[in-house]
Amino acid sequence: PPELSILNNCSPSQLEGLCSFLQLSTCPEPFLVRFCSWLLPLTPDLSYTSAAVLAEQLFLRRVLSLTQPPSRHLMAALTSFCSKYSHPFCRVLVAAVLQEPGEGAEQTKLMCELVEECLEPHSVQLVLSQVLEVPLSEKLLPVLQAVLGRQEVLPPELLDLLVLTLCQQAPAFSTSLNYAKLVTAVLTAYQSQVS
């Protein structure tokens, strides 16, 4: 709809107010899918800041409150949004999930699915760098495994940080099967760069 061009003319605080007025954070999921599909052809593209505000308003509450796998509508909306605005999405959503205490099993599965199927290579690297900024936990190991499963060429500094983190954290994961799989995956995928 032409009215959506207003999204390009709002300041971040105005955009937050508009989202709140439209109750986007609690709108029914079928509408969320439609709204995200309207964002794709929008020209010009949303600014990074506007996309980050929308990612937070549309998805943050929904993702953090997941206690079972996301509905197909929510997955469709996430996939649609990520296809165009994956960088701001990762900055907002992934960071929030990583800082969330507790197990967060559904959030972890969702992050793995997005890494495996939706995110662009540069966004996969962003997820990896975000994971390496926080202390490793058993819940984050599958996310790292998903990143490695993409078989992307990692910048040397990011690969070095990954290897260093795995070495430093080894004592904490001495009985972890996931950790062993992760180390094996790193050695397999990057054997020529890991000495």
Automatic annotation (TrEMBL):
GO cellular component, one term: Fanconi anaemia nuclear complex
InterPro entries in alphabetical order: FANCE, Fanconi_anaemia_gr_E_prot_C
The organism's place on the tree of life at top rank: Eukaryota
Annotated ranges, domain Fanconi Anaemia group E protein C-terminal: 1-194
Biological process (GO), any one: interstrand cross-link repair
Name of the protein described by the UniProt record: FANCE protein
Organism: Rhagologus leucostigma
Gene name, Swiss-Prot/TrEMBL: Fance
